[in-house]
Amino acid sequence: MKALHQSLFAIATIILLISNCVQAKQSPNLVISAQDVAMMQAAIKGDGSFAKTFIKTKAIVDAQMALPMSVPTPADGGGGYTHERHKKNYQLMYNAGVIYQLSQNNKYADYVRDMLLEYAELYPSIGLHPQRKVNSQNPGKLFWQSLNEAVWLVYTIQAYDLVHDSLADDDINKIEQQLLRPVAIFLSEGQPSTFNKIHNHGTWAAAGVGMAGYVMNEAEWVEKALYDLEKSGKGGFLRQLDELFSPQGYYNEGPYYQRYALMPFITFAKAINNNQPERNIFDYRDGVILKAITTTIDLSYNGLFFPINDAIKSKGIDTIELVNGVTIAYGLTQDSRLLDIARQQGQIILTGDGLKVAKALDAGRVTPYQFTSTAFGDGADGTEGAFVVMRQHADGEPADKGQALVFKPSAQGLGHGHFDKLNWQFYDKGAEIVSDYGAARFLNVEAKYGGRYLPENKTYAKQTIAHNTVVVDERSHFDASTKLGNQHHPELLFFKHTAQGSVSSAQIDTAYQKVNLHRTMALVKLPDSGEPLAFDIFGVKGDEFHQIDLPLHYQGQLIDSSFARNAFAKSLTPLGNSNGYQHLWLTAQARPEAGLAKITWLNDNGSFYTHTAIVDGETEVLFTRTGANDPNFNLRNEAAFIYRKKMSKAHRFISVIEPHGVYNPSKEFTLAATSKISALNYQFEDELELIKVRLVTGKQYLLAINHKEHLPAKTKFSYQGTDYLFSDRFHLFKIITKQ
Amino acid sequence: MKALHQSLFAIATIILLISNCVQAKQSPNLVISAQDVAMMQAAIKGDGSFAKTFIKTKAIVDAQMALPMSVPTPADGGGGYTHERHKKNYQLMYNAGVIYQLSQNNKYADYVRDMLLEYAELYPSIGLHPQRKVNSQNPGKLFWQSLNEAVWLVYTIQAYDLVHDSLADDDINKIEQQLLRPVAIFLSEGQPSTFNKIHNHGTWAAAGVGMAGYVMNEAEWVEKALYDLEKSGKGGFLRQLDELFSPQGYYNEGPYYQRYALMPFITFAKAINNNQPERNIFDYRDGVILKAITTTIDLSYNGLFFPINDAIKSKGIDTIELVNGVTIAYGLTQDSRLLDIARQQGQIILTGDGLKVAKALDAGRVTPYQFTSTAFGDGADGTEGAFVVMRQHADGEPADKGQALVFKPSAQGLGHGHFDKLNWQFYDKGAEIVSDYGAARFLNVEAKYGGRYLPENKTYAKQTIAHNTVVVDERSHFDASTKLGNQHHPELLFFKHTAQGSVSSAQIDTAYQKVNLHRTMALVKLPDSGEPLAFDIFGVKGDEFHQIDLPLHYQGQLIDSSFARNAFAKSLTPLGNSNGYQHLWLTAQARPEAGLAKITWLNDNGSFYTHTAIVDGETEVLFTRTGANDPNFNLRNEAAFIYRKKMSKAHRFISVIEPHGVYNPSKEFTLAATSKISALNYQFEDELELIKVRLVTGKQYLLAINHKEHLPAKTKFSYQGTDYLFSDRFHLFKIITKQ
Residue A267 in contact with residue A259, Cβ under 8 Å? Predict the structure, then answer.
């Protein structure tokens, strides 16, 4: 046995040595391999979409190459001239490198060489960037922060790899010694805290340094990129893959940063796969890289990402990172549903995988992408809450014409996370109906706080009141402490999707001390008419008396409420003094009588939406609009209403949103402009939650949800003299009235 | 000579008798003729777009016919059940009639017959509509106002005509005696003031009654429809054509009502042409009906009508009235440019002309519609001011990607007119940049004031401050008296379009007593870069001291101003007490130093817009937002800034709007977010207006406008030591700086 052990050990060691040994250099061999190039060269002789993209890209590169080359001494921050110039330069070098490989025309390689040589002259002469932040942990040299420098390296090392076969030894020597090696060393040993960090900045650095390792035969750099500077495995690319994504491929910071984070992961993974296929990087952690790509798609509605946390709302699936992601994923899987997304993206990538996508699109192999209802577990092991997406649509209708309900019992999401535990959003007919403000930022617009996150991002957009979730005593969750938020997360109690719809429930005890927040949400279709309803039951329980606010930010024009509103027609004042309240003008207030309170608004999509709540006669409704304490007009002007319960130890907000009718002023017709719901009844007994909905037609429905932790095979109950039985987490019954 | 005269007189009398004699009935012969039917029957055997439309329409009719027929006793006003049901019924009868003619399947004719018989039972039993307005001049019976009743007759008489050949004599008798004749008589003799009125309501009545005359062989009805009840020619269809359109085909109330007004004109004209081609109705008044159709198209940008006066802003060229208009116009002219509009409308009409359009579209005969820069004269003879449309776009770019500047020195426009003399709007890259509020109305939304014009239409939308034109002493033009407004109109001084762009100037002395308002607007492209600039020079002169406000309502997010703003961050109050000012929250105010004042905003189209004004250091800038004194949240929430000059007898506002840059957060780049204009100089001497623009690049341009009433062949002038010469109303010079 001992001999066998020894032999096995020896074999394992050899395998390890082989796998760790970087292959002798062949060029190119990062994202684009020499084999890819051969096929791509053949394809551009045809007239498919790949050839068209080549022609278009070549024209763009030609136009840019016709201008004077500029490698300026770094001076400006984000959005400024030198910043943007260096960003354009790496993109241009990369594109010119690709065009060189495809056209075999040396002028493109020469251009890349000349620019690299200019950088090689510049780089040794510059210190840290003049616009770096004071006491920054991660200053750059070419850019104000090293993140941009790492991105520069990821593109530039590929450009270098693409033109390498054309370079004279002297030039290779100068470019590597004066530029590429110093940059790689600056980004690794020069900034250990960033390089080793389990964070998107770390991933870019790892990708850049690791790819440089492949190109310049520095096996150690690859090892460090994969396992951290000490090769300990406590940091580095693999640890980032372990920790930054959940098993379902959900990225802690949310979709806006997920698509951004994706880029270095997929780029470096592709380069690893080309150089060391034996690492089976795409199988790592049960294929987490592929999952991260498809999850990014799944976190969108009508082409735009769900704008949770710090997010620019116009970002969507056509973002270049996801175009690359879908391209690489299709190259690996040939899954024709990915072509549906590629078609919507409308961009072909000039790589080997891009050629596969182009050919498949040209051949019309698209099948519809299947958007599903899913709870995406959060955290490295998927147990730190979840990000829940519920969807439904009519048969034969695309997902984006139907509804999406997004429920957010997910973790804090680091520095870009918002204080919005158990927040939700609602989408219908292509539009955002119950909305999230996203980030307060005008990206790269110098006049708007240098294009960075505006002060109002912190004072408003991140605060709880800017979201659709409970605020206790006008204080934000975790008292708006990111550190505290990162230590806790909500608990997903259950998520279930059936043919009738989706239901999910979650809670959190730590957003406020000694207060439990518990929310159950459901998106269902009425059994006979197929009409959608979105239920929201928000329970708040504490030891002491609190003021409990539940805001709802709506998109559209207020049409009507079932109760009188006292509007502040003559003067407006802010709703509060801090925690985001100072940015809301109080435009009206009301105290609806006990019973049902309805608020109807009209969205630009031409549908009406009515929020129907059960009220106790002591709950106030406050109507607000953003814009107070905003001297620079930095905030968008948006409307909300807030259900406010004062002096309460426990309260349950029960409501349903109902899309209805059509407003078509162009064709001059208006249908069903009023809500169909005539009564709501609620009870919660023995962990069985029952909500009865009565329509004006007299039809009645009963949504039953069993909250038992250990769900029995069958749930039996009696309601108003009738026995009911169901076998899942929930069921929506049509109540048959006895004659 | 006497004998000859007598003979000629006799011949003329005979011709008159023949032409006035309604032909023996053949069916159908209103908009659709028997000859059309034969061709349409052939076409539906093919598979072109006409056949597809037939199949689709037949399916819709089949689905509606499968439901129980409902001819309810009139009860509800606009938007209510019986109102909408009767509207649907006439549409259904018309469609079923068409399907009957095309399919020759009697079930469709029988359905129309059965519904007509139900109406024939109902009609004699009902009096005036219960929801009619108190003391209304024009109540209906089936509908709350007779306008709808006239529309009902226009459709129903066509439906009857389409199924006439299938009806038994008894049914004909009952339908005509109990329904169609009473309705026609009710709408003519029963309401002389409406029937004889030179107004859109009169046109619908004339069209319905006249067509009924053709179908039921009542030549007198046709005569009355054409010449009024007394056949005096003081009213009736021809007089309406004389007075409601200008020679250029511009309709006094503006495009929103123009497209609506179009429908009875084109429908009745087509029926006249089929029944009495010898009337040459389409040649009447130099082809004014065709001009009215093309002018309606010309009054749009990016598919939407310019929303001046009472207008629902989502109305555009795909409105069914204009689909019919373009169809009939194409039938007459076979002008392939009309197909460009038909293609955008995407609707085929099941008529003989509709078949021509369908065949031409199927054959790909579209050529681009040519949107031009035009001053559409207003008033019956085209001299009551004008509605000026200036357009420009880059070569090869569609008109809707370029700019449109709309200048409104047009007449009041009757009851739907706004008090906005010399108002303007600006469009760029598909979007409204300097905007018009349009009408305050949620069409047919019961909860919003019954779907009618909201009170805020009068208190805000019609008032001068809601527009982009001068308000003197916080009072609206004509003190908001429609009667007074209708008595006056601005004077168009000139309009000129050249390869460099367009310039127009107009004035009015009557909007305010003893105050002259004089505005000159220009839309030009800079000679070398092609960059667009929109100039606005607004002169105000009075005998006494006044407060002069010039508002600009902008669409987008305020980015920056070149001067400090004092924002009302802690509380808001309305800007004024009346004339629309009470609806504006004052959000910030400023007093820029003498020199240039710049305000930059960002539109959703991704472009920046900077308004640069010459200021004297004593002009205030007020920033506002609609929503004050609006307890029902009826107003949309929109932003404006107002240049305010106090205590002034004369003032001239000089400004230029400059589109610049790109904001693309999706692709993460921002370009040219700041204005390029570094200086503006202005002088007006001896009726020569000179505006010098200096850019940050150092380039300088000089816009010279000769205001002389009698323009000389050449204008010579000297400016800063250089001589200039131009031969048109205006010229834009590039200033060559001497070294």
Answer: no
Q: How distant, in Å, are the alpha carbons of A145, A297, A512 from that of A417?
A: 21, 20, 17
Across the A/B interface, how many CB contacts are shorter than 8 Å? 147
Segment B454-481 shows an average pLDDT of 98
Name B464's Cβ contacts closer than 8 Å, sequence gap at least 6: B419, B420, B470, B471, B475, B476, B477, B480, B579, B580
Q: What is the ipTM of this complex?
A: 0.89
The answer to whether the CB of B205 falls within 8 A of the CB of B195 is yes
CA distance B733 to B724: 9
SS3 of A96-160: HHHHHHHHCCHHHHHHHHHHHHHHHHHHHHCCCCCCCCCCCCCECCCCCEHHHHHHHHHHHHHHH
Closest residue to B637, CB basis, from A588, A637, A674: A637
Query: Which two structure tokens, joined as six digits, stand for B709?
Result: 């009433």
User: Residue A178 gets which letter from DSSP?
Assistant: I
Report whether B582 contacts B576 (CB < 8 A).
Answer: yes
CB A243, CB A190: distance < 8 Å: no
Residue A663: list chain B partners with CB under 8 A.
442-443, 445
Q: What is the dihedral of CA B29, B35, B38, B39, to 10 degrees?
A: -120
Q: Do B666 and A315 touch (CB under 8 A)?
A: yes
Q: How many whole angstroms separate alpha carbon A203 and alpha carbon A225?
A: 9
Q: Percent of chain A having pLDDT more than 70? A: 96
DSSP A22: P
Distance between B527 CA and the closest CA of chain A, angstroms = 23
Residues of A in contact with B607 (CB under 8 A): none
Cβ distance A567 to B630 less than 8 Å, yes or no, reads yes
Kindly tell me the burial class for residue B198, based on how many C-beta atoms sit within 10 Å of its own C-beta (0-12, 13-18, 19 or more).
Answer: middle
Enter the tokens of residue A224: 């460090």
- Where does B453-500 show beta strands of DSSP type E? 471-472, 491-498
State the Cα–Cα distance between residues A408 and A420, nearest whole angstrom: 8
| Helix pair B284-298, B237-244: axis angle to 10 deg | 50
Question: Searching chain A, which residue's CA lies closest to the CA of residue B305?
Answer: A666
In the residue annotation, B257 being an active-site residue is answered as yes
Q: Is the pLDDT of residue B22 over 50?
A: no
Q: What is the set of active-site residues of A?
A: 257, 416
Contact B665 A632 (CB under 8 A): no
DSSP labels for A38-61? Answer: HHHHHHTTS-SHHHHHHHHHHHHH
Tokens of A252: 């802690």
- Can you state the percent helix, strand and coil of chain B, rounding each to 5? 35, 30, 35
Closest CA to B350 of B27, B28, B25, B31: B31
A684 sits in the region (left: phi over 0; alpha: psi -120 to 50; else beta) called beta
pLDDT digits (tens, 9 = 90+) for A262-314: 999 999 999 999 999 999 999 999 999 999 999 999 999 999 999 999 999 99
Quick check: A300 and A293 in contact, CB under 8 A? no
Chain segment B641-695, per-residue pLDDT in tens: 999 999 999 999 999 999 999 999 888 888 999 999 999 999 999 999 999 999 9
CA count, 13 A, side-chain hemisphere, B220? 7
Do the beta carbons of residue B160 and residue B116 sit within 8 Å? yes
Domains of chain B and any CATH numbers:
403-674 (2.70.98.70)
* The one-letter amino acid at A659: P
Residue among A303, A299, A634 at smallest CA distance from A453: A634
Residues A447, B600: C-beta atoms closer than 8 Å = yes
Tokens describing residue B81: 């059940």
Alpha helices in B164-199 (DSSP H): 169-175, 181-187, 192-195
CB B508 within 8 A of CB B421: yes
